[in-house]
Fold:
Amino acid sequence: MAYNIVTIVGSIRKESFSLKIANALAKLAPASLKLDVTTLQGISFFNQDLEAVPPADWLAFREKLQKSNGVLFVTPEYNRSIPGVLKNAIDVASRPYGKSSFIGKPIGIIGNSPGPLGGVSAVKHLQNILPGISGPILGQPETYLNGVGDAFDDKGELTKESLKGVLQQYLDAFAAFIEKQNR
Structure:
């Protein structure tokens, strides 16, 4: 049986490195994991006034998460934090209060950047935001992918062998974590 993992891409840019990394992860994933690469286009802004009758896009996103066996975030760093679209999606999914769609879901986080820091601040912010609204977060290996600007060819395929190795190592650890958490 393959565990269904909602793989949330933290950027909505068409040529996003996060999207390319998520797609590479989906191809490298072991048979025990099915990574459902999920972009955040179309998720309307969270507004508590709408909670009595939530928009269809909120309900669809929440249901996708609820049906999953885990969640993997792949995010860039914007201004030393997570992108606004990702924070909005987390706000949408964590509501209504006390009924977060992340509750009980094991979580993985991969930060990335074309620069030298690999999204460390974004990952740390997710590690601060998620406790209390999610399940357990994989602590090791921490994965901050730097220098990703030259890791893909013009078709979006991963060509940087060193990055492939890092992603495979992460996926192996994440698959073991998912297996343990879903027993």
